User: What shape does this take?
Amino acid sequence: RRVLLYRRSLRVILAGGVFMSRLTKILLQEVPNGVYRFGSRAQADRIAEKVEDFNWQCFLLDGGAMDSKATFLAACAKAFDLPDYFGANWDAWEETLNDLSWAPARGYIVLFDNVTAFADRATDAWETAVDIFGMAADNWGENGKPFYVLLRKAGGYWTVDVEDVESEDDDDDD
Assistant: This one.
């Protein structure tokens, strides 16, 4: 049997379907907890399926429908199926994100699509949201639990530094 090897980095793994090696690296915890740009063009529901195959929880957010702190928090309440006591303010969001006791899983991934749309329309809210995501990732990591926020269609602008999990030759983010 012959195997053809390419000089470029491997971008997909075939395992019950085609998925990017970057997601697999995250699910195998080869990447530290954090907030990352994620250039996959896979359908969100396919990514969620892969995540759930690992007994992790995947929360889907769409920045295209967000234009303020209020719409961001409302979208989070829905996506995370937050308890009724959620207070819809930054402090409540931070506390809730660091709890997740109503959503037990081996690990957590927040897949945040269309980030640029939200960041363009509500820059201050975006910066606060990404800070809270980063603090939650650190907190979960200190407690030994995987927690990742994957940003898609994140564009090239914002004032918040976001680590990039993509390989250096992969520019398919936008």
In short: The mean pLDDT is 81. The first helix runs from residue 21 to 27. Strands lie at 12-14, 18-20, 34-37, 57-62, 108-113, 147-151, 163-164.
